[in-house]
Amino acid sequence: MKIVLIVLLIIVIIGAVLMGRNIYFVESAFNKTPAGKIEIKTIPEAKVLISGIKGNYYNTKNILFRNLFNYIQDNQISMTVPVEAEIDSSKMKFYLGTKDKAKDLPDRANVLVETVPGRTVVSIGIRGAYNKSNFDEALVKLESWLKENTQYVRGGDAYGVFWDAPFMPWFLKRSEVHIPVTKRKG
């Protein structure tokens, strides 16, 4: 019980420090899928920051997040949630919030500014660590769901969606796996 209270106290203190530095999450790009639930949802068109390197996302040791975080700090951009990660191509996308969309932001060698189109996805919510095992387990559930729900056709590669900051304890972290889909015609 003491450990739980200490962890919660640390989370509150870190949150207060971050808020004091004006580094806090002010806006969500879309709604979170509840843990364990599978749903179809529409992700709106968005202006994003993208960082990528070769290799698998889970082997990047937070390089992508660090690239994006440094860019956000340098350009005084408000933090938003979530961030997206393309697993096999090792890219991370950060959504720009409402007040930052109009900014004329420059590309860098390790961060590109792009507009991504809206899309429909099948999503599953996850609670737990951001790791390959949890991603793969959720992906199997989504692929099974797609086999049973034949009115939807897979429209792209699965990707991860991460809702919480790196300092959040693993057992409190929330994420999702998305697969782009289209409605079968006829």
Structural summary, described in words:
- 26% of the residues lie in helices and 32% in strands.
- The chain is α+β, with helices and mostly antiparallel strands and 186 residues long.
- The chain has a single domain, classed as Multidrug-efflux Transporter 1 Regulator Bmrr, Chain A (Alpha-Beta Barrel), CATH 3.20.80.
- Strands 2, 3, 5, 6, 7, 8, 9, 10 and 11 form a nine-stranded antiparallel β-sheet that branches.
- The longest helix has 19 residues, at 2-20.
- The protein is globular.
- The relative contact order is 0.19.
Count of separate structural domains: 1
Name given to the CATH homologous superfamily: Regulatory factor, effector binding domain
SS summary, helix count = 3
**Which CATH-level-2 architecture?**
Alpha-Beta Barrel
Average residue pLDDT? 89
Q: Which CATH C-level class is it?
A: Alpha Beta
Task: Give a quick rundown of the structure.
This protein is of the alpha+beta class. It has three helices and eleven strands, in the order αβββαβββββαβββ.
Task: Record the SSE blueprint.
Blueprint lengths: L1 H19 L4 E4 L9 E6 L2 E7 L10 H12 L4 E3 L1 E4 L4 E5 L16 E5 L2 E9 L4 H17 L3 E3 L4 E4 L11 E10 L3
Parallel strand pairs: 1-4
Antiparallel strand pairs: 2-8, 3-6, 3-7, 5-6, 5-10, 8-11, 9-11, 10-11
Descriptive terms for the model:
single chain, 186 residues, alpha+beta, Multidrug-efflux Transporter 1 Regulator Bmrr, Chain A, nine-stranded antiparallel beta sheet, two-stranded parallel ribbon, 26% helix, globular
